[in-house]
Amino acid sequence: MKKLIMLLSVFSILFILLTFLQNKLEVIDAKIENLHYENNKLEHELNFIKTEWEYINSPANIALLTENYFDHRPAELINIEDFIKFILNTEEVK
């Protein structure tokens, strides 16, 4: 009889511990699901922002914005002789 009571008490304690463990596992599982949801949401937002960034920084869009908002003309390159003449003329003026 003593063995039976001891055995029942051990099983009761084990079932109680198992219940607490199951509860902790459910809480952890809910947190993991929340983190997966947040991760997916942030990845979606990151992809959206990357897409916007690619559009905003595209050469065609930059050229369009430059034409609309700046008085911008393409720079003309000068050759070496003209550059040397320019430098020599500025030194004479000083």
Name its key features.
single chain; 94 residues; mainly alpha; 3 helices; 0% strand
Description:
The structure is a single chain. This protein is mostly helical. The chain has one domain. Helix content is 85%, strand content 0%. It starts with a helix and ends with a helix.
Number of helices: 3
**Range of strand content:** under 5%
Biggest sheet: strands, sense, closure? none
**Low-confidence runs (pLDDT<50, min 5 residues)?**
none
Outline the fold blueprint.
Elements: H1 2-56, H2 59-69, H3 80-93
Concise overview:
This protein has 3 helices and no strands. The protein has helices spanning about 1-55, 60-70, 80-94.
